[in-house]
Write a structure and sequence with these properties.
1% strand; two-stranded antiparallel ribbon; 469 residues; mainly alpha; single chain
Length: 469
């Protein structure tokens, strides 16, 4: 009965309220920023290539987290089970057309990612070892509603620190049990110990770990996808055709599944790239940059990296393999597709996916943990409370590895939807400040300057943006 109730509530919130809100906000921000996610792609790459060092922020010495490290933390959270298992589920339930709507979600949602990450930088504060910020901070400082900010902080801690981390550890344990017959209990112990080792090292440890492992794992997976695509190059036109046909197909409309195609594409797109959800601004705020817009642009590029590159790689692997549809779902569909595409009757694909999903999901566990910590410190900056939270995360990682997660997934969907709605309303309220920051940035770039933001640019919130004095 509880499972049915949770499923019904989560279905309403995620399939209708959240999906509609995300698309509406993305369209509004695309208009208000005049398509910043399209016209400033070149600037995004320029900033990323020069972001390996602190870029002359107003207080650069305070933070040891570079712009690239903050980008890597957010990518670590984005790139996880959603890129392998989530894409496969979207195709299995919504059909190949769901991939098109994932692309649309990313292309439009990049504007929301720009706004929320720019706001996170604008309203950030000085923490003990790095800057801190995110939706809870810009809700309280920009809107002045403490209760709203605390509600968001609680929801993101429950969603990412606990629920999503159990999902990640369960995926790792399932993959290794299926391929190597490795006991789930021992995988739970290994994951718990590794998680505690890293998270007790603080944000410096998290950022350094993410900085080198995220690019390596992403590049390795993309190289495998490229090899499979080249081996099946003749199938690419057909793959693109079935994606487009299923995205707008008469068959889907007549069969009443057209709505499911869109819903699955948008939902899985959000779970993967997190644009507008309110999670990545927590990482974006930690970076030391000279202007809030710089990190906003870099985080927009993260949405493209996650969905247009890595999710698309999984989609092409599955659709090139020719085994869809055969009743497989989730990570199993991805594994079987790689095995089939590589040929030879070996399980090389399953082994590779098991190894890759370990790194994808484990880095997500670490980044998800950090989102919870920064929001707990917002509620109450207590080392004792944070240490209890760290130990609880370790327990949840273990439980996720050894238990079924159907009920947890339902609760996670509910808290994720509520968290997303809280953030969407906030960034729609405060988005005007991100737009003014963008105009200031563009003005300085036209003058040939390396943009530097001062709180006096937006005088009405100058007292709430103390990091930019």
């Amino acid at each position: 009965m509880i499972q049915d109730l949770v499923t019904t509530v989560s279905g309403i919130l995620t399939d209708y309220v959240m999906v509609a809100g995300l698309l509406a906000a993305a369209l509004i921000f695309t208009v208000l920023t005049r398509g910043v996610q399209f016209r400033m792609v070149g600037e995004m790459f320029r900033l990323l290539l020069t972001s390996g060092r602190k870029s002359g922020s107003v207080d650069a010495k305070h933070s040891s987290v570079t712009s690239f490290q903050a980008f890597a933390i957010s990518i670590a959270s984005r790139v996880g089970t959603g890129n392998m298992a989530g894409v496969a589920t979207a195709i299995a339930i919504g059909g190949p057309g769901a991939i098109f709507w994932m692309w649309i979600t990313a292309i439009l949602g990049a504007s929301s990612a720009f706004v929320e990450s720019t706001l996170a930088q604008l309203f950030k504060i000085k923490g003990k070892e790095s800057f801190m910020g995110g939706p809870a901070y810009y809700i309280q400082k920009g809107i002045g509603k403490r209760w709203w900010a605390v509600l968001f902080a609680i929801l993101i801690t429950l969603t990412f620190g606990f629920a999503f981390n159990t999902v990640q550890s369960n995926t790792i344990a399932s993959a290794y049990e299926a391929v190597f017959d490795f006991p789930r209990e021992w995988m739970g112990v290994i994951l718990t110990l590794l998680t505690l080792l890293i998270i007790f090292g603080g944000i410096k440890s998290i950022s350094k770990f993410s900085e080198w492992i995220v690019p390596v794992m992403a590049i390795a997976y993309l190289l495998l996808a490229l090899i499979i695509i080249l081996m099946n190059i003749g199938s690419i036109p057909h793959v693109l055709t079935i994606i487009m046909e299923n995205a707008f197909g008469i068959e889907q409309i007549a069969g009443g599944t057209f709505g499911m195609v869109i819903i699955m594409g948008v939902k899985r797109g959000l779970f993967s790239n997190e644009a507008g959800e309110g999670s990545t601004p927590n990482a974006a705020a930690t970076a030391s940059v000279s202007h809030p817009v710089k990190q906003g642009l870099i985080q927009s590029l993260g949405v493209y990296t996650d969905t247009l590159l890595i999710c698309s790689a999984t989609a092409f692997i599955i659709l090139c393999s020719g085994i869809y549809p055969e009743g497989h779902d989730g990570i199993v569909l991805t594994q079987k597709s790689i095995d089939t595409a590589l040929g030879g009757g070996h399980n090389y694909g399953s082994v590779f996916v098991s190894i890759a999903i370990f790194f994808f999901a484990f880095t997500s566990i670490i980044a998800n943990y950090y989102y919870g910590e920064t929001n707990l410190r917002f509620i109450r900056n207590s080392n004792r409370m944070v240490n209890i939270y760290r130990l609880t995360v370790g327990v949840m990682v273990y439980l996720g590895a050894v238990t079924s997660l159907d009920l947890v997934w339902g609760f996670a969907d509910i808290t994720m939807a509520l968290m997303t709605i809280c953030n969407l309303v906030a960034i729609l309220w405060l988005g005007k400040y991100a737009v003014r920051c963008l105009r200031d940035y563009q003005r300085q770039r036209r003058e040939g300057k390396d943009p530097v933001y001062k709180s006096s640019v937006i005088p009405e919130i100058a007292t709430e943006t103390e990091c930019w004095k």
